[in-house]
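Replying to the earlier thread about multi-chain prediction with a worked example.

Input:
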Amino acid sequence: MGGRSLQTFMVLFLFMICLSNIQISEARIRHYRWEVKYEYKSPDCYKKLVITINGRSPGPTIIAQEGDTIIVDLENSLLTENVAIHWHGIRQIGTPWFDGTEGVTQCPILPGDTFRYEFVVDRPGTYLYHAHYGMQRESGLYGSIQVSPRDGVAEPFDYDYERSIILNDWYHKSPSEQATGLSSTDFKWIGEPQSLLIQGKGRFNCSKLTTPSLDPDACNQTKPECAPYVLTVIPGKTYRLRIGSLTSLSALTFQIEGHNMTVVEADGHYVEPFVIKNLFIYSGETYSVLVKADQDPSRNYWATTSVVSRNRTTPSGLATFNYYPNHPRRSPPTVPPPGPVWNDVESRLAQSLAIKSHQNYIHKPPQTTDRLIVFLNTQNQVDGRVRWSVNNVSFNLPHTPYLIALKENLTDAFDQTPPPTGYDFVNYDIFKRTNKTNATSSDGIYKLQFNTTVDIVLQNANDMNINNSETHPWHLHGHDFWVLGYGKGKFDIFNDPRNYNLENPIMKNTVAVHPFGWTALRFRADNPGVWAFHCHIEAHFYMGMGVVFAEGIDMLKNLPSSIMGCGHTKGFHRP
Amino acid sequence: MGGRSLQTFMVLFLFMICLSNIQISEARIRHYRWEVKYEYKSPDCYKKLVITINGRSPGPTIIAQEGDTIIVDLENSLLTENVAIHWHGIRQIGTPWFDGTEGVTQCPILPGDTFRYEFVVDRPGTYLYHAHYGMQRESGLYGSIQVSPRDGVAEPFDYDYERSIILNDWYHKSPSEQATGLSSTDFKWIGEPQSLLIQGKGRFNCSKLTTPSLDPDACNQTKPECAPYVLTVIPGKTYRLRIGSLTSLSALTFQIEGHNMTVVEADGHYVEPFVIKNLFIYSGETYSVLVKADQDPSRNYWATTSVVSRNRTTPSGLATFNYYPNHPRRSPPTVPPPGPVWNDVESRLAQSLAIKSHQNYIHKPPQTTDRLIVFLNTQNQVDGRVRWSVNNVSFNLPHTPYLIALKENLTDAFDQTPPPTGYDFVNYDIFKRTNKTNATSSDGIYKLQFNTTVDIVLQNANDMNINNSETHPWHLHGHDFWVLGYGKGKFDIFNDPRNYNLENPIMKNTVAVHPFGWTALRFRADNPGVWAFHCHIEAHFYMGMGVVFAEGIDMLKNLPSSIMGCGHTKGFHRP
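Result:
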């Protein structure tokens, strides 16, 4: 090879490397076309209407890589119902209008319309998507988002294979039936869920039907559709299970009989690994756990999920942890493990406290805050209806999305008075049943100074029942927050902050407030947009347990007209 | 009294008369505020979700006088569902945009929105209103419109009192459940209705539940809500019963035990009176009958309604015809009369033929027509789904309302090819099962030359079952038509028109096509707008049994922006 040709070769070689590097580093566009419609499905053997995406519930898993752009063209093929989908855990930096929260960031999508969601998944991790309109999430409109790191970027743990699993609780009644009962003056609560689903598969005992049917297809336990979910593993291999919960109501525990799990990721952030027998998981949370198939390979094992934090009447959800080459339908020879007792608050608090940022991935929080807001969570009556409240204000969604109202200065679209930033810390007894008549309702919001640090303390309290306080998983849109601390009883504004973890707190988008306790979190108001922050229990948010933050609205460029067309924004959308 | 004061008195007196005359002749505005929402109701003792208006189903009766303007401010308080209401029988002259037909004359009304309907009731008579979106009518969103003549204008019959009664059939499943079954490739038909309602009250035998419930409130025959409707009469008095049918499926017969009825009005037109024992009534029709309380006053009587034209499995609906002062809950001492047998087509055809215009109120039809359109009604398969078709084209509603698309010249909003105006008259055998695969679907429409006379022949045929042809009640929006004739078998285009009744045909807005028969009607295309013409059986229209006429669009002034905001008209609505 002469000097000239060597030179040419080198140039070409470098060019090739360059090209391949571009291919490696260049983010891709992942384009999905989804048709949303009603279908009859039997996820737990009981046949009912389910909202499917392309015929499936859970919908297709979005598998992407850090930096990719996701485009979802969502066609609403429901007959008379609108729809909206939230991309849970995706911060929507630069695209706050595609957060998918009806009434906050967009108008609902009408039947017959196709709406384009377009956003970047800017961080590896495990995320979710689900309906965010009325109580539609309960209809089965949900799925997983799985984001891997950029090529060549290692994660702080090793595994051979991975699986996404969504845990859910399942009702046989429709969201309309539930919502009508919740919002009537003779309040009717639908009760505990009929079953628990593991990746869309549950098992309702048809003989337990309070309404037995003569239709053999109405509840049929022989349907393959409701055969237990099978997690097949190869002996000796290590599996990353990406586990998310989208329960309507239930806090859950998840365990795999005879196997330890190592928690390595929470809500898209690496966790300093710790080993558990069972994982407590609250609605809106995601975890990655590593499981090694290191037990006797001659049999299968149970994977189970059960209700905690409420006296369970819902049977455990069962899946099969199947050692290859055993038959996937071969039942384990054992009784499914019962898991921890439902009212063991200490163990759940202990897991919450155990979750710290991985030592090599610490995002140190700002050491001081610019603003402290305390949110007292209570159950109240407003206008003769049972409601949930924050600082005695029960939240109503407006019909004009805040994002548009704020950007277009439609001051009559919602209450311009901000709700209170605290409660009567001195006199309020969090261990006493709530006063039934002392709450109001509002669609007012909290405006946050852009680029400031905000502390939120979520204060739990006794609800309307004697000696009862529920677990509330709060989810923040558009941000991750640092979890600074948990405590029991009433938050002490002077002393408790001294014990905050400011060294290695985990960042999350969803966090539990334990019964009669408090949870403190901190975030930077650095994402221009309007963001819901609410209890992820579907009925609680519907009944007013939420707030909305707005920040940096003046920094937003023009909003896409596709999000407009309802309330005061009729006529704002011109295609 | 001196001359001067007498003069003053006379002037004042004349002024007063003048004032009172103005009050008499001046049309009034009747303003209603309606909130539409879901509530649990037990119209037939079985509790289910019902869409109510101001807490009621049937909704409030609109009682007005000829020439009045009706304003209804309709607030949609459903959670995720849109809505639209059609004013059935009101021609909407000058206000075609308020016909309330989603996809034809307006976009649906979003949750949280208040939509104003404003129209004139320009003719005395008995009319209806009901949801016209998806299959929402079946949820109980319907009511009566009762228009009296102008003061001083007599009607051609006398009565002492009047009552409005709507007959309906009732399903325990939701419209979403029905629609999902009908539109899936493994077609599931919901079957016959569970009960028949008389003015919103029916009686389901809870022990016959195929799905008995442990909830004592789920089906409770002791509820006052589902006690039979009571029609209290004073002995010797004559009652005008304004009877409408809004069944989803069923053709009905209505009778009052031991009493004759005199038919005096049909769809807002005076009928040459005739006496019947039982009234056949099809979905979308209204009749006024006179009943004299001339029987033994010491007891009560049954008023009953039963299914005809389909082999009935639905029990008869029962009301009490209560002679005052007997107790309204005192059961008649007799067995309810069974009514005519379901498959007695001849009697039904005879009633159809008996209905002629009252001799003093004849609107003579044009003696010739400008255009003849024949509509063959068949059941077919399109893309693997069971559908109903007209001339082998199954109708789909577009998502951009025709009225706006035509006025704004949005030619890509729907198929610009008009559907066929006839079928293969020579070769098509109407007595043979339909070919399952020979239909297509379209949202194309028929454009009618303004101010022309149009003849429509509705031709019935065998459906997908052997030796079966159903009764289809066709309803025309925006017009009344003359009913020129009925016949058996295949319409003979050369000979049958010779037997048309061109002397005293009744005008109607809804007419039945009897099994294996045809019905001929004529109307003037003199109402600028876009008008649906369809089978009033909710499932048949949903499955494609309808057409749309457009006429005089260029004569319309600006459309109200309130009807816009969906499909291609997003952004057209600016409040």
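Residues 383 and 440 of chain A are 8 Å apart (CA to CA).

Feel free to reuse this layout for your own posts.
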